[in-house]
Write a structure and sequence with these properties.
Elements (H helix, E strand, L loop, with lengths): L6 H20 L4 H19 L14 H16 L1 H8 L3 H7 L3 H13 L16 H16 L5 H25 L23 H23 L5
Helix pairs in contact: 1-5, 1-6, 1-9, 3-4, 3-9, 5-7, 5-9, 6-7, 7-8, 8-9
């Protein structure tokens, strides 16, 4: 985007790399997972640099080409035997650490708000409480998975609550974007997610965070005894 200081996209780029690295570790260093994610990011980077997603009056929105493939892929993981085997092989403890990236993400969103690239309601000063997920993730990882002093119900509750916080901010992000169905923040819409490198937020970071929650919930629901 224009008029943004360099530290914002650089910090976002580092956050994206951190997200991928943490998920790669949780996927037990799966090279195929890493390659797939990187190729997807390269493809979306090329598309977004052409200004494809900045055309917001198309129906259906072009933005669907950014967010629907990851969502469909996640659904495929849970609805196919091979996919479920992959999900069940993920490390639930390390999946919990993936959520620490929600701290720098929220800081970046605040910076973007200051430069009028997203609305205030998408920040922790508005209606976005997702930073709580990132702040509590290290505690849940250490107490729940390393020391094993949290029950399965507590771990499930944390995952469901944080999943709700994720859905909450995604809803505000969509309704604030300058699409034909925009309902919020008309004075300062959510424009950043239409530009490189910030397309990686809905196209990569959010799907990996979502998958981390869903995989952890599946693991805990299948487990008979407390952790």
């Amino acid at each position: 985007m224009e008029n943004l200081p360099l530290y914002i996209p650089v910090t976002f780029g580092l956050t994206t790399i951190l997200t991928i690295w943490l998920f790669y570790r949780a996927a037990r260093r799966s090279v195929s997972s890493l390659v797939l994610i990187i190729l997807w990011l390269i493809l979306q980077s090329i598309i977004s640099l052409q200004g494809f997603y900045t055309v917001t009056n198309a129906l259906p929105p072009r933005f669907l080409l950014l967010v629907m493939p990851p969502l469909l892929f996640i659904a495929l993981l849970f609805f196919t035997k091979k996919g479920r085997n992959y999900v069940d092989n993920l490390d639930p403890a390390l999946l919990t650490l993936v959520h620490i990236v929600r701290i720098p993400v929220e800081v970046i969103l605040f910076w973007l708000y200051l430069y009028k690239a997203i609305p205030g309601l998408m920040t922790f000063e508005g209606r976005n409480f997702d930073i709580l997920s990132g702040l509590t993730a290290p505690l849940i990882f250490y107490v729940g998975w390393i020391q094993k002093k949290m029950s399965k119900k507590m771990l499930l509750a944390w995952n469901f609550i944080c999943l709700g916080l994720l859905i909450n901010i995604v809803r505000y992000a969509i309704l604030s974007a300058p699409f034909p169905f925009q309902q919020l923040a008309f004075d300062q819409p959510d424009r950043a997610i239409l530009y490189f490198p910030f397309v990686a937020l809905p196209g990569c970071i959010v799907p990996l965070v979502l998958l981390s929650h869903l995989a952890s919930i599946r693991y805990l629901l299948k487990k008979q005894n407390p952790v």
